[in-house]
């Protein structure tokens, strides 16, 4: 029984079972994919809440979250060059730890990608409504937010968010070339708007607003408040900003020369996004005193522009926010479908999710299934309280991938690696420590919801996945092989 739960796939088995998706993604496309996933909600929404939590030291919080993701990103890059197939952390765990752990991580990633796309669609709807109001167009308030999400206002359905998710789903379904071009164009526009904001507003920075730089220290509780304040709690909040770079590794089977391009795309996107985040937060907290962010916590960038008097810039930045959130949803839904595609191919999900359309060379049915599910969730469900669930699911995946690099270096030191994470074992150990620190900053309610999701996943695995796994058709490896990370010869279907 234990051997079946820990049965592994070899790299050869994973690559041999890959189906012919189109290989068109290059380093530039992967970097744009990573930036598209990272830069969005973090700059346009979370900077307000983060400034109230850490003050001007929010820039350090972003750096702390980036360092955590950087260490984990190096581990992802090594695995991506070693196991160049769709599935990201799910596939890596299948090679390193076995089927049960792989399923659990895949189940976590479904939570991460789908839930983040749904939550971002709610934020996208808010910015879209503001943009329309600027032209004198007002949608019925009942159709501008999920049921009960707007205090004092009767709302039933988030129509704009529902529609934008369906449009993104269509782009994903018609082919990777269309997805790549759409994402590249939107990310370039978004970066141009962010740089324009920096260039136009940096002259309004008042260094006096940076004092005190860290009013709440590293970690503290304010009198009368149950929520922690300081650099680390703010880092736990803005960590959400960096979620998505791991989706780059999901594109392995659609990438040209993945051994080299995947690591580059992951690392480049993290570095560029971190520099922009730090620059933006320093400028914003230099223009507006950090307590004043309470007046516009939901739209902090707009509040900063109002303080400068550059009203003409507001429309452009609102457009940038829309584009930024659109690329986040596009990459999250892309990663979602590729994870389920990989799990279906291995027999852990029904074949429906792994069928590749002959015309578009994409998992058409699975893409539309999860696209509709995410659109409905964003349209109907009040998911504000579930933001932290995305974080805990992602941090758990980061820990498993980092531990996997340690384990594979020990059990398969001579395996081919197109990229080797520097500083092993220190790098993956630091990634695990940083992730554990950020997890510790989450609430107990988040842990309860995570355990419930985990329990549902175990029911799916033992009720369906274990019996339908493709590994059921091969001879069981010896216990010594399981412990060493070696598997049987690749299956020939």
UniProtKB/TrEMBL annotation:
> What are the boundaries of the signal sequence?
none
Disordered: annotated segments = 471-493
Q: Name one GO cellular component term.
A: membrane
Q: How does it sit in the membrane?
A: Multi-pass membrane protein
GO terms for molecular function, please?
amino acid transmembrane transporter activity
- Subcellular compartments: Membrane
Q: Which InterPro entries match?
A: AA/rel_permease1
Could you list this entry's UniProt keywords, alphabetically sorted. Answer: Membrane, Transmembrane, Transmembrane helix, Transport
Regions that span the bilayer: 30-52, 58-77, 89-110, 156-175, 187-205, 225-245, 266-290, 310-335, 368-386, 392-409, 421-441, 447-464
Task: Please state what the protein is called.
Answer: Amino acid transporter
| Origin species | Pseudoscardovia suis
